[in-house]
Amino acid sequence: MPVRQLPETIVNRIAAGEVVERPASVVKELVENAIDAGASRIDIFSDGGGRRKIVIADDGSGMTQADLALAVDRHATSKLDDEDLLAIRTLGFRGEALPSIGAVARLSITTRHAREPHAWALRVEGGDKTPIAPAALSQGTRVEVADLFFATPARLKFLKTDRTEAEAIREVVRRLAMARPDIAFTLAGEERAPVTWAAALPGAPGQLIRLGDILGADFRANAIEVRSEREGVVVGGFAAAPSLTRANALGQYLFVNGRPVRDKLILGAVRGAYADYLPRDRHPVLALFVTLDSREVDANVHPAKTEVRFRNAGLVRALIVHALKEGLAREGRRTAANSASSVISTFRPGSAPPANWDWRSSPSYPVGGNASFATPSFAERTQAAFDVGAPSADVRHHEVAPDLLDRPLGAARTQIHETYIVSQTRGGLIVVDQHAAHERIVYERLKASLDANGVQRQILLIPDIVEMDEATVERLLARGDELARFGLVIESFGPGAVAVRETPSLLGKTDAASLLRDLAEHMAEWDEALPLERRLMHVAATMACHGSVRAGRVLKPEEMNALLREMESTPNSGQCNHGRPTYVELTLTDIEKLFGRR
Fold first, then answer.
1. Which range, of 35-44, 503-512, 577-586, averages the lowest pLDDT?
2. 49 three-class SS
3. CA nearest neighbour of 458 among 483, 485, 481, 489
4. CA–CA separation, 320 vs 226, rounded Å?
5. Residue ranges covered by each domain of the chain
6. Which superfamily does 332-345+390-598 belong to?
7. How far is CA 144 from the centre of its chain?
8. Which residues contact 49 (CB under 8 A, 6 or more apart)?
């Protein structure tokens, strides 16, 4: 078959396949054009999931008659001052969107520039342009796209249901609205009730208002402002407290110079920053904005402009990790699970017993119960109701210094079930999980020792010999240097066995066999791509768990108060290094609400 030049219409349809993947792609391109035109308000309407109709109207600068004639030609753009593709300061710059849309749909553009006496209109159907004609429009541009993919019917077969396509449009608009809180957006269509996001004030407060409007009140209530800057690169935004998580990474919104992107580098940095706070199967909710010189980032990597490439990727990653860690450490004890509202939501008042309920039908009533048990006296019943046994540890009111009540975590009052410490503050009460709290304390000590002069070791008089399968032994010995940095020194003891020579002093007496088996399980999930820092933190977290106060241990009053004081001075003490809360708090006001006093 001889080589031949393809017709222009076919070339345009092939190009459209790269740019116009689905209706949401059309909305993204057209809204970005409106943003670049300086619009302060953008209205989006879709019908049939965008398949039948898409309308984008803005109050931007509009186009002159001459500009409109060129706008639907391939590779015609007003967004590049010269041929320098490294100086990209706008969202769209390829000059492919409008001609690509016109090649596969019925495109109608009505626009008015301030210098023009009236508006102008142009239609493109399947790549065929109509002459420009006068039209009526007060300001800006109105773009209507009808019968998407009518010129390429095969593409219609790959579209999903109208509801799914409408949701994809909604997600695109959400991302663009997050990037530009100074612009008002309205999203409407047959598939949904109209949604309006009003323009917000500039700066971080306005940004948080827009993020809260889109991501919900929970995010606004738990958002932590983060910021880091170095060498002209600025990372800012808001990240949710560690207990506000999702089962996937879809709640992570990333922007580079105002452009919504999906970047593996940034997602990996986020995962690393939250490694100390979240369980493995949970993901944080956040919106991060990276701002840097346009010459330091390549936005021309993907036709849809959803990916970027950084000149100094290491610097960007380091700034993201630093910003997140600094913000999370600053709000160390602040998590949604600690708040009174979250605690109260777990209380579900039981339904009242029916009027004809017989207490003798209760499961607690003994089978064959005798009359003397079935009909106790009133005094006996009252006394039995309060006979619940003594607490594990009890601190009398007069034994506590009054000034402790003013401390953030208050004064310890009692220990219940040999697991939880109950403390009193001036404004309520706090319940602490002693193991989770001490686990975080030991973990932070290990990290501090590692950063300072290494973890102090204790030499075992008689080495512990731990037997495991040969594959596990090899895995542990291969990571021997990393374990030694935390004071755990091991060596081979023949096939299928490891000798533990030294252990970290911070852990005290520990079960070496159990510790090594847990470490081996974690190591089985690692690969060489996992950074050394992350691997070391996994080791530290596992050691901290084994070196902490266990549930079931009775604590003395002075031990309970000492644990509370250490929590107050320990970074990130609001949750353990597995992401679980270390304490919950109830204010006196909320306690009174539970009992109907308010």
1. 503-512
2. helix
3. 489
4. 9
5. 8-197, 204-331, 332-345+390-598
6. MutL, C-terminal domain, regulatory subdomain (3.30.1370.100)
7. 35
8. 23, 159, 160, 161, 162, 163, 164, 165, 166, 169, 191
Buried b (16+ CB within 10 A) or exposed e, 432-462: bbbbbbbbbbbbbbbbebbeeeebebeeeee
| pLDDT value, residue 518 | 73
Taking a C-beta distance cutoff of 8 angstroms, is the pair 230, 290 a contact?
Answer: no
User: Residue 579 gets which letter from DSSP?
Assistant: S
Inter-residue contact 460 to 502 (CB < 8 Å): yes
Q: Identify the CATH assignment for 204-331 out of 3.90.1720.10, 3.10.310.10, 3.30.390.30, 3.30.230.10.
A: 3.30.230.10
pTM confidence score: 0.70
What is the rounded distance in angstroms from the CA atom of residue 50 to the CA atom of residue 54? 5
Place of tokens 């009111």: 397
- Span 8-197: which CATH code? 3.30.565.10
| pLDDT tens by residue, 195-245 | 999 999 888 999 999 999 999 988 998 899 999 999 999 999 999 988 788
Range in 172-186, 324-338, 371-385, 447-461 with the lowest mean pLDDT: 371-385
Instruction: Give backbone dihedrals phi and psi of 333, rounded to 5 degrees, phi first.
Output: -100, 5
Dihedral of the alpha carbons of 100, 106, 107, 110, in degrees to the nearest 10: 170
Rg of the chain over Cα atoms, rounded to whole angstroms, equals: 32
